[in-house]
Amino acid sequence: MQITDMTKKYADLISEWKYDGIYSFYDHNKDNIDDFMNGKHFACTDMSGELIGYFCFGEDARIPTIEENVYDDDFIDIGLSLKPNLCGNNLGLSFLNEGLKYAGELYNTSNFCLSVASFNERAIKVYKRAGFYVEREVTNSYFNNKFFIMKYT
After folding, report:
1. Cβ partners under 8 Å of residue 69, min gap 6
2. Is the terminal CB of the chain with fewer CB neighbours within 10 Å at N or C?
């Protein structure tokens, strides 16, 4: 795997991703392509250059919450998404670790935070295997659903 700057081509591909079942919550659309081009999003490709996922760091990885002051500025927030047809194929942990390594070098830290929908047991399992722990439960103020904020040190 290799992580590179986001391009319009990769953002267009991501906007077309459609996840199955409850995971359709994570679908994107053409409306947010510009958000991918702000310098905080990075494409992850396989060695042949095919897009397999993406990462975002900092405030772009945060969700709006009903609760106040839920994010810790001593931690770098990380958001990630694996291409839909690759989910459930035991790639999650190596994909996440690649992103953590990249962000660690980029931000010179080993303290990370992520937000994950509480129903996403598949992702939560991967995050825990990587060393993340649930720090708190919050409510997404846009969708009004429960999320976990998980930390890694």
Report:
1. none
2. C
Domain assignment of residue 45, yes or no: yes
Instruction: Give bridge partners of residue 65 from the DSSP assignment.
Output: 140
User: Is residue 142 situated within a structural domain?
Assistant: no
Q: Examine residue 132 and state whether it is found in any structural domain, yes or no.
A: no
Domain that holds residue 81: 2-108
Q: What is the pLDDT of residues 1-26, one digit of tens each?
A: 899 999 999 999 998 888 888 887 77
**Which has the closest alpha carbon to 52: 92, 97, 100, 102?**
92
CB contact set of 122 (below 8 Å; sequence gap of 6+): 87, 88, 92
Tell me if 99 is assigned to some domain.
yes
Q: pTM for the whole thing? A: 0.90
Q: Which of these, 103, 127, 90, lies nearest to 54 by C-alpha position?
A: 103
